[in-house]
Amino acid sequence: MKALIAGMLAMTCALSMTACSSRKDNNSSSSSSSIASSSAPSSSAPLTSSASEPSVSSAPSSSGSSMASGSSASSHKEGVISDVEDAVDHAVSDVASLAAPTMSTDFSKIGTLATSQVPWGPGVQVDEENRTTASDSLQEQYGKYGAYFIAPRGCGKFYLTFDEGYENGYTPAILDVLKEKGVSAVFFVTAPFVKTCPDLIQRMIDEGHVVGNHTNHHWNPTQKSLDDAAQDIKDLHDYMLENFNYTMSLYRPPEGAFSEQTLAMAQELGYTTVLWSFAYADWDPNNQVGYQTALEKTEKFIHEGAIYLLHAVSKDNAEILGQLIDDIRAKGLELSKWDLPYVSPAES
Question: Is 217 a catalytic residue?
Fold first, then answer.
């Protein structure tokens, strides 16, 4: 079984490298021409060391991972790159020994916090302002740990975020649309994506997007020790700093899985945890719903303070993005670069 998984991982890595290499041979405009048209580098938080209705609610899978309801147990794991501890070819193992001297590793103060994974999801219930009601409740409960599920009322803003576990050929077109529309997004990347697509990482940085930490191994942090979960963040942090001179400060836990303790751990590391107020079943490239359905799903939940999670492996997302941006702006909302403040442990 391990040999089979290793083979699948190797194949995915090869496909990612092919997709990224293809971009080098074809300019970004030719990339975007295949997509149906429907129409500053780091974040401000300083480091101190994922049917008819959108499947936006999360529930624990049989393995304990948080995932969108109605999905299979492996659907929200960014393709075949999943929690395989021996997948060393997809880890930033060459930087595991690098120190992160400015990142706190003293977790003694959070040792008594709950360690069980929190089953959560923004759900489909909305208030009179079309905000997902569960998101406001989650924000009130866990905001003290520096986590964001939704931005405050009255902000007038909308935040676009993308998860990048591997490259499926659509990121260049997504970047093209964002550039054309003058929008800055957050891209949460894994180590395999960073290592196989450095040109896309550099383009994100150069074009003013925020590159967020989606970890080295894409482990569910609630199923690891605090030290291992922290190291999974730090390894990618150090790799980005060494190879791109870029300091990451936003963190999205793999599968959206968290406990009180892991939220506090990321906060102690100086990270802001970014979750979401909307997501839908977009992560399976072989099960796309089509342009019109995808647009309807994403338009239906537009709300002030939204943090949208979209997967960049999705053909649908690449195709609807331009129209979605226009629709968000038509509702009077500003598509903002990430500007929500870091909440330090002392402030919480």
Answer: no
Contact assessment for residue 28 and residue 176, using Cβ atoms and an 8 Å cutoff: yes
Question: Which of the residues 76, 90, 163, 217 is marked catalytic?
Answer: 163
List of the chain residues with pLDDT < 70: 1-19, 21-102, 104, 348
Domains, the chain, ranges and CATH? 2-335 (3.20.20.370)
Q: How far apart are CA 42 and CA 248, in angstroms?
A: 7
CA nearest neighbour of 321 among 339, 286, 294: 294
Q: What is the pTM of this model?
A: 0.76
Question: In whole angstroms, how far apart are CA 222 and each of 194, 263, 303, 333?
Answer: 24, 10, 30, 35
Of 136, 282, 311, 316, catalytic: 311
Q: What is the pLDDT of residues 58-84, one digit of tens each?
A: 333 322 333 333 333 333 444 333 333
| Run of H or E residues at 300 | helix 291-300
Read off the tokens for 276. Answer: 């979401």
Q: Is 311 tagged catalytic? A: yes
**Residue 193, token pair as written in the block:** 């994506």
Pair 35, 224: CB distance under 8 Å: no
